[in-house]
Design brief:
The structure holds 2 protein chains of 2 kinds.
Chain A lengths: L12 E6 L3 E7 L2 E3 L2 E4 L5 E5 L2 E7 L1 H22 L5 H14 L7 E8 L5 E6 L5 E4 L1 E5 L2 H12 L18 H18 L6 E8 L2 E8 L4
Antiparallel strand pairs in A: 1-2, 1-10, 2-11, 3-4, 5-6, 6-7, 7-8, 8-9, 11-12
Helix pairs in contact in A: 3-4
Chain B lengths: L9 E7 L2 E7 L2 E3 L2 E4 L5 E5 L2 E7 L1 H22 L5 H14 L7 E8 L5 E6 L5 E4 L2 E5 L2 H11 L6 H16 L9 E6 L4 E6 L5
Antiparallel strand pairs in B: 1-2, 1-10, 2-11, 3-4, 5-6, 6-7, 7-8, 8-9, 11-12
Helix pairs in contact in B: 3-4
Classes of the chains: A alpha+beta, B alpha+beta.
């Protein structure tokens, strides 16, 4: 008997790295369904506020719905408080938004990057139902398992259980962090069929944000 | 859960300049419970030929015993050691014999052949060979290992650099895999010597 199946994994990988005064958020632009490529130029990154960028992979329908929902709530916040939402505030909002659908979840794996109120880089990483953690770097999506050991190796974040709490931001310079992101994507693209085509990188720092695109393998 | 993931494992081999390295983790577990932290998955066939067996530990040991047996018979009859390519075919044939009730192992074979040409290869549990020029991985940490090796490997490394690279790749990978880790074991084989090292690692 035919059954309603509301979920599909459209693949893709998202990475974010936080530094002392910057944050790099990156994702590939491939959109897949099974063994098919639906699009080679489909962005996974949403600019939610001045200093707040969300990259999500998973089910594209849910990702789009979630990102629009957050953008709408951010706009209401702006009107109510006469300022843009901060990144930690957006992080809590995203968690609540995901948990609100605890028993029919958004099939979306999110990495939120930006600057906190002190201008320091921050990365928040999520599961599908809103459990989240502030970290120094993170990878989510189909290529995450390939990238995470390399990021660990290069960035070694201190355990969140340490007392007193250590700073999780990475020691790398902004350009080194961007180069590392390009490297891990180039490597993951070699082995993950759902990652490739193009890499979209957004860098946020005190002077605003800027976006760049580089080519990845297309096979 | 898959029977290949019952004990947990990570095996990797890399080719360098006239040398190769083969490494594995040291954990033996029963699903999530760790039973031993000095388990051996890399075995010597002869001075220039090693095999790493990921997957179900009992099958790894049985398969190793059968391979040693077959290699000794070969040595008696031929009065020489087996070439890595020949040995890979032997492993493949032995595995395919059990086509419909396989050994739950994914072997990694690494050796120095004629003129000390390095040879590495892996295969699935029923003997389909996969030859590679750079590196091969297997076990529960294979996905992490693919990512790490793809980023860290470069061709024509000298033995010291090869040791550093394979160790970093192994340790980074097993730290992201719950079922493998608890120390590492690395062999670097050159035409003249074999370096055997035990790595200390995170015990969690």
């Amino acid at each position: 008997m035919a059954r309603f199946d509301p979920y599909e994994n459209n693949g893709g990988t998202c990475v974010a790295i936080a530094g002392a005064d910057y944050c790099v958020v990156a994702a590939d632009t491939r959109l897949s369904a099974g063994y098919n490529i639906l699009s080679r130029d489909s962005s996974k990154i949403a600019h939610l506020a001045d200093k707040c960028v969300l990259a999500s992979s998973g089910f594209q329908g849910d990702v789009k719905a979630l990102q629009r929902n957050l953008a709408a709530k951010e706009l209401v916040y702006e009107h109510n408080h006469n300022k843009k939402m901060s990144c930690p505030a957006m992080a809590q909002l995203l968690s609540n938004t995901l948990y609100y659908k605890r028993f029919f979840p958004y099939y979306a794996f999110n990495v939120l990057g930006g600057l906190d109120s002190h201008g320091k880089g921050c990365v928040f990483t999520y599961d599908a139902v809103g459990s989240y953690e502030r970290t120094g770097y993170s990878a989510q999506g189909t290529g995450a398992a390939l990238m995470m050991p390399v990021l660990d190796n290069q960035l070694k974040s201190p355990s969140p259980l340490l007392l007193p709490a250590r700073d999780a931001v990475t020691p790398l310079s902004e350009s080194d962090a961007v180069d590392l992101v390009k490297d891990v994507f180039a490597s993951a693209t070699e082995r993950d069929i759902y990652t490739g085509d193009k890499l979209e990188i957004v860098v946020i720092n005190s002077s605003g944000s800027h976006r760049e695109c580089i080519e990845l393998r297309k096979d | 859960m898959s029977i290949f993931e019952y004990n947990g494992s990570a095996v990797v081999a890399m080719v360098g300049k006239n040398c190769f390295a083969i490494a594995s983790d040291r954990r033996l577990g029963v699903q999530l419970q760790t039973v031993a932290t000095d388990f051996q998955r890399v075995f010597k066939i002869h001075d220039k030929l090693y095999i790493g067996l990921s997957g179900l530990a009992t099958d790894a040991q049985t398969l190793y015993q059968r391979l040693v047996f077959r290699h000794k018979l070969y040595q008696l009859r031929e009065e020489r050691d087996m070439k890595p390519q020949t040995f890979a075919s032997l492993v493949s044939a032995l595995l395919y014999e059990r086509r419909f009730g396989p050994y739950f192992c994914q072997p990694v074979i690494a050796g120095l052949g004629e003129d000390n040409e390095p040879f590495i290869c892996t295969m699935d549990c029923i003997g389909a060979k996969e030859l590679a020029k750079d590196f091969v991985v297997s076990g529960t940490a294979s996905e992490s290992l693919y990512g790490a090796c793809e980023s860290m490997y470069k061709p024509n490394m000298e033995p010291e650099e090869l040791f550093e690279t394979i160790s970093q790749a192994l340790l980074s990978s097993v730290d992201r895999d719950c079922l493998s880790g608890w120390g590492g074991y690395v062999m670097v084989v050159t035409p003249t010597e074999v370096q055997e090292r035990v790595l200390k690692a995170r015990m969690d």
